[in-house]
Amino acid sequence: MGEATYGVITGNTTMLHLLRGLSPVSMGVLPFEPLSRFGETVDA
After folding, report:
1. Which residues, including other chains, have CB under 8 Å from residue 18's CB and lie 6 or more apart?
2. Please, which of 7, 11, 23, 24 could form a disulfide with 15 given CB 3.0 to 4.6 Å?
3. Cβ-proximal residues to 10 (8 Å cutoff; 6+ apart), any chain
4. Closest CA to 15 of 24, 25, 6
5. CB 20 within 8 A of CB 27
6. In whole angstroms, what separates CA 7 from the centre of its chain?
7. What separation in angstroms does the CA of 10 have from each of 14, 27, 42?
8. Close Cβ partners of 19 (under 8 Å, ≥ 6 residues apart)
9. Does pLDDT of 6 surpass 70?
10. What are the C-alpha distances in Å from 6 to residues 2, 19, 28, 39, 43?
11. What DSSP letter does each residue of 8-43 carry, written as one string?
């Protein structure tokens, strides 16, 4: 087997913000507006 080429990470909006190093502060008010809609591609 060779090296993994791709990976997929999923989670709720707050957890994905924390994973990406984005501030989750906007998640604490209604209606919340995420800083990113995700579907992003990042280098390993």
Report:
1. 24
2. 11
3. 16
4. 24
5. no
6. 13
7. 11, 17, 14
8. 9, 11
9. yes
10. 12, 17, 32, 14, 10
11. -----HHHHHHHHT---GGGGSSS---S--------
pLDDT digits (tens, 9 = 90+) for 11-25: 888 888 888 888 888
30/34 Cα distance (integer angstroms): 11
Whats the size of the chain, residue-wise? 44
DSSP 1: -
Flag whether pLDDT at 37 surpasses 80: no
Whether this model's pTM surpasses 0.70: no
Q: Tell me which amino acid residue 3 is.
A: E
